[in-house]
């Protein structure tokens, strides 16, 4: 696979590369990102390799990420070639309750600020960053539909939402003729497969692409954190912080890493590429959002597109990273499904091509 093997994003006509450039590391405000030159080198390397899909958010490095991305695109006059995505929800004006969440007042204000920082008059994809647990879904969908009608946004997506919420929003969009959600952005990697319970099946049923974030679990799956401590990088800086985004050094995760490292030795590739190659082949995954602090890391990650894992290697990775399905999901596999159909298997019709 190559970055130029474009794929439509969910049920839409938007063509994107199978790897998206994540830019949460663009800017130094959070203490573990890339400065302007290192970020520019990443942007250039991605675009020069044929990539067209760039992900940012208003909250990333307090707005620096959007500013850098906007500048890089403008400097090379690439606005029309890039599928530019950003997000709203997080609060950039603490103490103002309407400067965070997903209400109309926030969204209308957030998009103007993002467009300014990104130096553009429209977004190709506008993500709701996280369910805010309070705004009525009809207010969210109406507001996003208005942005599309205003010409400020081409498509909409949801990040970090429960499956029932995405399903409710999509059904509302279908019945009311509102703009549909074309993609879900969710944490997904060998060490975090929780979305397979509900969100992956929902995405496939409802025409929403999965775009995984933190595919290397913040760098853990690059294999650079020894069990007994140490290791340079973002997770090392925040070791023991209690924040789940950084707290990856668990016994279970090291067991998964061990198997990934064994597979890496067999295919003679860095373990990060094995973790990414496994993810690229998972059902529903459309464009994986890769993140890097340096251009070398980014290039190593992009090369995962060339890695082919055998069915046996995939099976070992699936097995070691498997998780208990829990209720009611045990009902949707064997042996319970046998009780519905007898020994015959009933396959669901799938569109071809
Ligand atoms: N929607 C959301 O809620 C959400 C949340 C998080 C991220 N995202 C998106 O997803 C993108 C990717 O997330 P992420 O940055 O967490 O991805 P990740 O791939 O899990 O972690 C990337 C980090 O791992 C380390 N790394 C990457 N490649 C490496 C390599 N080849 N060798 C050694 N270390 C390597 C680097 O950090 P160090 O060098 O510091 O170790 C890099 O910054 C973000 O940029 C953002 O666009 C979205």
Written overview of the protein:
This protein has a single domain, classed as TIM Barrel, CATH 3.20.20.100. The longest helix is centred in the last third of the chain and has 17 residues, at 251-267. By secondary structure, it is an alpha/beta fold. The radius of gyration is 20 Å and the shape is globular. The protein starts with 6 loop residues before the first strand and ends in a 12-residue tail after the last helix. Helix 8 packs across helix 9 (271-280). The chain contains twelve helices and ten strands. The model has no long low-confidence stretch (mean pLDDT 95). 36% of the residues lie in helices and 13% in strands. It has helices spanning 36-48, 64-75, 104-118, 137-149, 163-176, 199-206, 234-237, 251-267, 271-280, 295-302, 311-320, 338-341; strands at residues 7-8, 15-16, 19-22, 53-55, 83-88, 123-128, 153-159, 181-187, 209-213, 288-290. The chain has an eight-stranded parallel beta sheet with strand order 9-8-7-6-5-4-3-10. Strands 1-2 form a two-stranded antiparallel ribbon. Bound molecules: NADP nicotinamide-adenine-dinucleotide phosphate. NADP nicotinamide-adenine-dinucleotide phosphate binds next to strand 10 and helix 10.
């Amino acid at each position: 696979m190559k970055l130029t093997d474009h794929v439509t994003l969910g049920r839409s006509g938007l063509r994107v590369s199978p790897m998206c450039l994540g830019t949460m590391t663009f800017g130094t405000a959070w203490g573990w990102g890339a400065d302007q030159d290192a970020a520019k080198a990443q942007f250039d390397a991605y675009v020069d390799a044929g990539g067209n899909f760039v992900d940012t958010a208003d909250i990333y490095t307090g707005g620096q990420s959007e500013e850098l991305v906007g500048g890089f695109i403008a400097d090379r006059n690439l606005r029309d070639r890039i599928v530019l995505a950003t997000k709203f929800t997080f609060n950039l004006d603490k103490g103002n309750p309407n400067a965070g969440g997903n209400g109309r007042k926030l969204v209308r204000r957030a998009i103007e600020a993002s467009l300014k920082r990104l130096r553009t008059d429209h977004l190709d994809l506008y993500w709701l960053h996280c369910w805010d647990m309070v705004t009525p879904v009809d207010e969210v969908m109406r507001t996003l539909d208005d942005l599309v009608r205003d010409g400020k946004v081409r498509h909409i997506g949801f990040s970090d939402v429960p499956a029932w919420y995405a399903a409710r929003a999509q059904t509302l969009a279908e019945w009311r003729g509102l703009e549909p959600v074309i993609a879900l952005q969710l944490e997904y990697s060998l060490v975090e497969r929780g979305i397979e319970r509900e969100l992956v099946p929902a995405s496939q049923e409802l025409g929403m692409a999965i775009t995984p974030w933190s595919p290397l679990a913040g760098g853990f799956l690059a294999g650079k954190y020894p069990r007994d401590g140490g290791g340079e990088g973002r997770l090392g800086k925040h070791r023991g912080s209690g924040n789940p985004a950084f707290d990856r050094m668990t016994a279970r995760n090291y067991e998964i890493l061990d198997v990934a490292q064994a597979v890496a030795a067999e295919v003679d590739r860095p373990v990060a590429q094995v973790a990414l190659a496994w993810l690229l082949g998972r059902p529903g995954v459309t464009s994986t959002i890769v993140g890097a602090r340096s251009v070398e890391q980014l290039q190593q990650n992009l090369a995962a597109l060339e890695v082919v894992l055998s069915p046996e290697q995939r099976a070992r990775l699936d097995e070691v990273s498997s998780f208990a399905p829990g209720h009611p999901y045990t009902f949707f596999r064997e042996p319970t499904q046998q009780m519905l159909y007898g020994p015959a298997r009933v396959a669901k019709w799938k569109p071809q091509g």
